[in-house]
């Protein structure tokens, strides 16, 4: 075969594929394939419609049946327009062509000597109806076809009409043709209907799967983007965390080493101790932030609502940050506190520690990003059931569009590229979580280079309780536990040494047990032990097991659980094991002494009570 012949064959093949075969153009669903099927019918109408129209047009013209000529011309022209105007919806175009095929077939059957051609048009109408419009339309046309065939038979063979152009077939032949047509129509349409319905089901199923796959693909892309963003944020967080941890640790280790230097004066030692305490508190605050965000994300966070002296809390917060501003030598920023109510003894029901944490995070941020001007915080009563707190600054403000992003964990933003701002990027995240846990919400109003104001609300539940029932001051200098013996179960020597020094200041006698098993043995041998400080995580026998063993033979000795675990359920587990109280590490000196006083009164109290009885 020559090269030229192959070229012609290839062009012909392309022409057939383009106009007659399955389209390679993009498409989907049954609607696409109906477009292609209608295209095939259009070609048939163009090719065969012209021939039929010319034949019958000339026939009507020569027989001077001008009305029939006009009728056939209308049918042909309208059908030709419908198949050649793609702007008209496919449903209308196919419906019109089906109707014209039905009318043409009916017209030819009533015309007389054109029975076979008329039935071909009706058959074409049925095929087009089932492929283009579905099962219901096809069944309707089949019923119409049976009615038409019956009416035509009655018209030609009943003898009730005066006919001039009688058909060239007998009644018997016509009945056979009509029955054959209906049988052929039925056995053709039945499997075709099944095929079309199956194709539609398969196409819809494929499209459904395709949508599912597309959604899953979109979800995977989104998940990947989020994972990449999260990875970037975590990397930045770890970098910031390293900086935030090393900064106070540098001060703690540095000043600790300087304390032992002979050339350091007593005044400088006091200053170093104070700086060590401040940096240790900063480091502890950082650890608590990490623990809090972990608890919140795992659903283990809990609030502890109790009566809180609101103005005392605000004053304490104000004093802390005034001291911080003074210590850091910030002279261009003033701190103001404004209270919404005049009652200095106002008490509300909330978690005062968490409220103070939110205020501290917001005020700390405000001071950090304010180079000149002021930071103001306070609250207003917006109704009888809600308090609105605010923290306002004249700082650098927020870049536009970041009002919500700043509450995302690890997110940090600054519109000042000349200064590096510290922080872990979780302070505002914790603040939002805490406010929502307390039953309120938080928002921000900011303008770049003008300032930022944070607002947050909490429920206003006023508490009417005498102050003397809430505040129980004690003087540490007056405590004397001489003659009292405390058992400390602690596997870490440094932790024991801290408790030993702290409690020895009050003349208490101490016994050290290095594990739970040893603590149980000591309590069995020594009967004069007045109180037990029980660490939870210890070798040989843990604290919970040790307390259970102790309660088998001693149900009265007070046991205070001390643990570095802070997750939800730890306190309940300690109480269930038989402990009387629970204190978390790092142990606050004043909190520990106050807790012990609940169980072990000191000698001064005993003396006072005795004098009261005598008098």
TrEMBL record:
Q: Which SMART domains match?
A: HATPase_c, HisKA, REC
Q: Which residues carry this modification: 4-aspartylphosphate?
A: 535
Segments passing through the bilayer? 40-62, 68-88, 95-111, 117-134, 141-157, 177-201
- EC assignment: the record states 2.7.13.3
Which superkingdom heads the taxonomic lineage of this protein's source? Bacteria
Which enzyme class? transferase
Residues of the Response regulatory domain: 485-600
Q: Which UniProt keywords apply?
A: Kinase, Membrane, Phosphoprotein, Transferase, Transmembrane, Transmembrane helix, Two-component regulatory system
Name this protein carries in UniProt: histidine kinase
């Amino acid at each position: 075969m020559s090269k030229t012949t192959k070229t012609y064959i290839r062009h012909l093949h392309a022409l057939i594929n383009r106009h007659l075969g399955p389209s390679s153009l993009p498409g989907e669903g049954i609607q696409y394939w109906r477009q292609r099927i209608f295209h095939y019918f259009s070609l048939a109408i163009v090719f065969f419609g012209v021939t039929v129209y010319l034949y019958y047009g000339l026939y009507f013209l020569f027989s001077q049946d001008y009305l029939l000529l006009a009728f056939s011309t209308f049918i042909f022209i309208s059908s030709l327009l419908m198949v050649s105007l793609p702007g008209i919806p496919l449903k209308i175009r196919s419906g019109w062509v089906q109707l014209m095929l039905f009318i043409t077939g009916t017209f030819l059957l009533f015309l007389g000597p054109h029975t076979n051609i008329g039935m071909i048009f009706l058959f074409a109408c049925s095929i087009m109806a089932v492929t283009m419009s579905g099962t219901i339309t096809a069944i309707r046309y089949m019923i119409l076809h049976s009615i038409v065939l019956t009416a035509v038979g009655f018209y030609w063979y009943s003898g009730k009409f005066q006919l001039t152009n009688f058909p060239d077939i007998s009644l018997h032949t016509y009945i056979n043709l009509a029955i054959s047509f209906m049988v052929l129509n039925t056995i053709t349409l039945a499997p075709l209907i099944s095929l079309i319905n199956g194709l539609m089901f398969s196409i819809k199923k494929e499209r459904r799967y395709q949508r599912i796959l597309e959604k899953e693909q979109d979800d995977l892309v989104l998940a990947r983007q989020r994972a990449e963003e999260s990875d970037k944020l975590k990397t930045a967080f770890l970098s910031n965390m390293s900086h935030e941890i090393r900064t106070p640790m540098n001060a703690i280790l540095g000043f600790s080493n300087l304390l032992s230097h002979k050339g350091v004066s007593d005044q400088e030692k006091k200053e170093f101790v104070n700086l060590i305490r401040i940096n240790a508190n900063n480091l502890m605050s950082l650890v608590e932030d990490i623990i809090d965000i972990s608890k919140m994300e795992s659903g283990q966070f809990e609030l502890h609502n109790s009566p809180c002296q609101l103005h005392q809390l605000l004053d304490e917060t104000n004093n802390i940050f005034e001291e911080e501003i003074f210590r850091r030598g910030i002279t261009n920023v003033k701190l103001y506190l404004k209270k919404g109510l005049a009652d200095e003894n106002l008490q509300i029901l909330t978690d005062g520690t968490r409220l103070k944490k939110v205020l501290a995070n917001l005020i700390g941020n405000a001071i950090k990003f304010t180079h000149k001007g002021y930071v103001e915080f306070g609250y207003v009563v917006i109704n009888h059931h809600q308090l609105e707190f605010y923290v306002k600054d004249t700082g650098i403000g927020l870049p536009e569009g970041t009002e919500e992003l700043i509450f995302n964990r690890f997110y940090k933003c600054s519109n000042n590229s000349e200064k590096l701002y510290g922080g872990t990027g979780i302070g505002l995240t914790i603040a939002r979580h805490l406010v929502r846990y307390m039953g309120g919400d938080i928002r921000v109003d900011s303008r770049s280079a003008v300032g930022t104001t944070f607002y947050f609300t909490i429920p206003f539940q006023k508490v009417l309780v005498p102050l003397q029932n809430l505040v129980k001051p004690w003087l540490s200098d007056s405590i004397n536990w001489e003659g009292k013996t405390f058992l400390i179960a602690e596997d870490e020597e440094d932790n024991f040494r801290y408790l030993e020094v702290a409690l020895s200041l009050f003349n208490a006698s101490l016994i050290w047990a290095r594990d739970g098993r040893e603590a149980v043995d000591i309590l069995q041998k020594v009967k004069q032990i007045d109180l037990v400080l029980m660490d939870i995580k210890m070798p040989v026998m843990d604290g919970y097991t040790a307390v259970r063993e102790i309660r088998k033979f001693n149900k009265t000795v007070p046991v205070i659980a001390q643990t570095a675990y802070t997750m939800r359920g730890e306190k309940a587990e300690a109480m269930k094991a038989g402990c009387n109280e629970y204190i978390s590490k790092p142990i606050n000196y004043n909190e520990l002494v106050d807790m012990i006083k609940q169980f072990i009164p000191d000698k001064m109290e005993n003396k006072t009570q005795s004098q009261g009885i005598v008098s």
